[in-house]
Amino acid sequence: MTDIYYMEDDENISCAVRKFLGQYGFSVSVFPTIAAAKEAFGGGCPALALVDWNMPDGNGVQMCRWIRERFRDLPVVFLTVREDSRDIVSGFESGADDYVVKPFELEVLLSRIRALLRRCGDISGRYLSCGPISLDRENRSIYCGEEQVHLSPSEYQLLLYLLENKGRIVTREMLLERLWDSDGNFVNNNTLTVTMKRLREKLHRPDCLKTLRSIGYRMEETGKVQNGD
Questions:
Q1: Which residues contact 198 (CB under 8 A, 6 or more apart)?
Q2: In tens digits, what is the pLDDT along the chain, a chain of 229 residues?
Q3: Contact in structure between 81 and 101 (CB atoms under 8 Å)
Q4: Whose CA is closest to 210, among 196, 194, 189, 195?
Q5: Phi/psi at 140 (5° precision)
Q6: Beta bridge partners of 229
Q7: What is the pTM (predicted TM-score) of this model?
Q8: Residue 195 burial class via C-beta count within 10 angstroms: exposed 0-12, middle 13-18, buried 19 and up
Q9: Quick count: other Cβ atoms within 10 Å of Cβ 153?
Q10: What's the 3-state SS for the chain?
Q11: Rounded to the nearest 5°, which phi and psi values hold at 83?
């Protein structure tokens, strides 16, 4: 199944779109608010996003810009009743790849989605995320909430490995092996502790980064951080 995130507060429309696309191999997750959609992005990136303009807690242009900053090449399609040329221009300028005016034929929407995915491919695996943290493997950009975070090479490699193993325990031994420099530079326990401490600070000590005392670390979606480095 190909994952699609759909931001829409009209249940009748979202239900029709979800059921129709489901017949063609798409798994559509519907979010009635922008806040709910942003939270979902913390759990993973879809293959494509459908965005309504008018949302209860904001507008689609803002959401599209938010997506484009963090998931640069994720295909985004506006589905909206706003058909004024200025709105259409605004939608494309905010980063949308296509703009579909309601009411629309479901078959037409399907063809546009397929065309976008043929052109862009499924790039969801390029992006890793957990809670407020998102990472783009291609351009090595990292966001924590609304803030872009700049990491050192060792901090980046540490975060990348933790996100690649989200939900699993990563021991200190595994991290030490991962952070061993390709030129043979030694990374010891103290270096790892210092690197982890700096990473936590730059990410504002996120709840999703757990410390398992005497074992290692784990990235997971909910819960509180245990004390430790």
A1: 152, 155
A2: 899 999 999 999 999 999 999 999 999 999 999 999 999 998 889 999 999 999 999 999 999 999 998 898 999 999 999 999 999 999 999 999 999 999 999 999 999 999 999 998 888 889 999 988 999 998 899 999 889 999 998 899 999 999 999 999 999 889 888 877 655 556 778 888 999 999 999 999 999 999 998 889 999 986 433 334 4
A3: yes
A4: 196
A5: 60, 35
A6: none
A7: 0.80
A8: buried
A9: 10
A10: CEEEEEECCCHHHHHHHHHHHHCCCEEEEEECCHHHHHHHHCCCCCCEEEECCEECCEEHHHHHHHHHHHCCCCCEEEEECCCCHHHHHHHHHCCCCEEEECCCCHHHHHHHHHHHHHHHCCCHHHEEEECCEEEECCCCEEEECCEEECCCHHHHHHHHHHHHCCCCCEEHHHHHHHCCCCCCCCCCHHHHHHHHHHHHHHCCCCCCEEEECCCEEEECCCCCCCCCC
A11: -115, 5
Q: Do β-strands 76-80 and 98-101 pair in parallel, antiparallel, or remain unpaired? A: parallel
